[in-house]
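Inputs:
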Amino acid sequence: MTADPAGRTGRTGRSGAWYGYLFVTPSLLGVAAFLLLPVLIVLGLSFFDWKLLSDPMFAGLENYRRLADDGAAWHSVWVTVLYVLLCVPLQTVLAMILALLLNQRVRGMRYYRALFVVPWMATPIVMGLTWNWIFDPRGGALNGALSLIGVTGPDWLSDPAWALPAVALVNVWQHTGYNMLFFLAGLQGIPSELHDAAATDGATPVQRFFRVTLPLLNPTMFFVTVTNLIGAFQIFDTIFVMTDGGPSGSTDVINFRIYNTAFKDFDFGYASTLSMLLFVIILVVTLAQVRFFGKRTTYDLS
Amino acid sequence: MQAPRVRWAKPLAGVALLAAAATVTACGGSGSGSGSPGDPVTLTYRLWDEQQKAGYEKVMAAFEKANPDIDVTIEVLPYDQYWTKLTADAVAGSAPDVFWMQTSQFPEFVTKGVLADLTPLKLDTSKYNNKVVEAYTYNGKLYGVPKDWGIVGLLYNVDLFKKAGVEMPETLTWAPDGSGTLLETARKLTADEEGRHPGDPGFDKDKVKTYGFASWNHYQTQWMNWVNSNGGRLLDKPFGRYTFNDEASVQALQFGVDLVNKYDVSPPATRTNPPTGKVTDMFTRGEVAMFPANNALLPFVVPEAKFKVGVAPMPQGPTGRSVNINGLSETVYAKSKHEKEAMKLATFLASEQAQKVMADGGYVFPALNGLAQGYLDYWQKTEGIDVSPFLEESKGDTFSLPVTTGFTGFEPKLNQIFNEMYLGKITPKQAADQAVAEGNASIK
């Protein structure tokens, strides 16, 4: 809101603001009750020793001290970071390439676009179960296909080297189409005059992509990478259905550890501490992204 | 300016009214417990088995008929959510009045004071399966109505036996050195695509068409049975410490692993390890001839199988046969608002009238002795399957799952460690040492 130059900041201005708050109240209440409050509660719980069915006891920084020495928890952080690195870049690049392909004016393109979004609509649990069959080392479709070209496929989900990539592959498969939609929308928002002008000046298609398209896609890129990173850091359901954190802890991501600590060990205090760790990691990564894109993004294409 | 307020006021008033109504009904509900005659009391009965729900609807109808002032609501929760929800409800003080209990979860709940002492029911415990009674006794007091028992037996594919021209031996036997009729029979039933058996020249273990036996990482139906029939011990005493890294136990574990990796009569662990293991599917598709399973699995396996399913007793080990028996019970919430009525229901659930319904419907072997024939008759008449070996086994040596605290937390770790063992990445000795250490650390 800009300041009123004539100094008429009386009624209209203030009552307008009042109404503004009124209109956002429902969603603000939602955010407060279902987002801010739980975060605060979890923060509070992280200072307690609370095994379910016993009474919570204040423990100060005990849980954080335990976390500092908990090699398994830091292993989980490492696995999660690996997972994010496997997932997000691949998913983003693939989605971008798909969007460029599907941005052509070809007959029936609408159907292709819809087709690529279908995986995103599947329930992760059902999808995980289906992929379990595909990954079966002996009768599975994937190794069956590999054997046709003379390759003996690995024991996907029981080999510590392959389990995490396998789970990442499923998530890439599921989310690429959905991300493609955003890039497609972003591409269509770029005025064609800019491309025409660049072409007239002698820019090659590759140059036009890197100098014109990509910079102007920054708002989309910002949104897609932020949501993907957060989503990847929070990965849980596919792991739950496909590997249970195994083999040898190779897919023991932090969210899965939080789940086991809370609902298997019933140790809510320490689970809250682990949740705070994940919260801080996501916060730092997201803030870094905001800074990175903040300097490089223009929202005005006219 | 007024309009929005009016429009907001209405739903608000509506919400307030609803809340008030809810309070009134809630008061009515809890008030009636303390006396006013005409109003019926509503009890909640929670279970996790969709199939058994149908049986319990009949049981509850009979109970309500005998007790017109009590209504029972049956609540079904899927097993995966059951314990999480029950724990949360117990924390909030709002657990159901009567609910199902499982041996491995019992220690957690009884030690935290969630369960009511059932001594006032004055049940004659000698009339019930003693393993079930034992599993729900804590400090000499009974905390669960003995409900039913399930036992591990050997399901087998009768068609595969016929095709291979193999007779199921009178008794299957095993020993750590690989002698005995189990391995011999399993070898004959294992065949690669060319029809060669393990040990034949040219046998290709990567192209096996049918496996003779299913040995895999499943504690209840697999390795715990090997351990107990080799003289190994899972736990030093109820509520004690894990001990299955002794020599006899490790030998038994080795045998389970050898069936897979040395003798090649079982599918590789890459296809059977939890959580993605598909052993049940492999059996119902006719790829596995012998499959140890709890009798509770029958309703899930028999309709799927396109062959005749047979039932045999589990193999005998060096110290005889010892199979897992798993008893369920019904427990009463210690803080139930209707304790008197809940106890009444518990008494009824322990009665012959209630337990006979569940037996004759083919749902379970009831914990009350003398009713098992109804269960046998059901399976004989509807599916033509003789399930009496399950009953025979129960008369011999049986063992319960380890009864101690912290099992929910230990279970995922145990499964991961033993996955490695079945894959052959660590030895049974290493696996048992690791698992025992983790298990004893999880005891509270």
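Chain A touches chain B at residues 22, 51-54, 132-133, 135-139, 155, 157-159, 241-249, 260, 263-266 (CB under 8 Å). Flag for discussion at group meeting.
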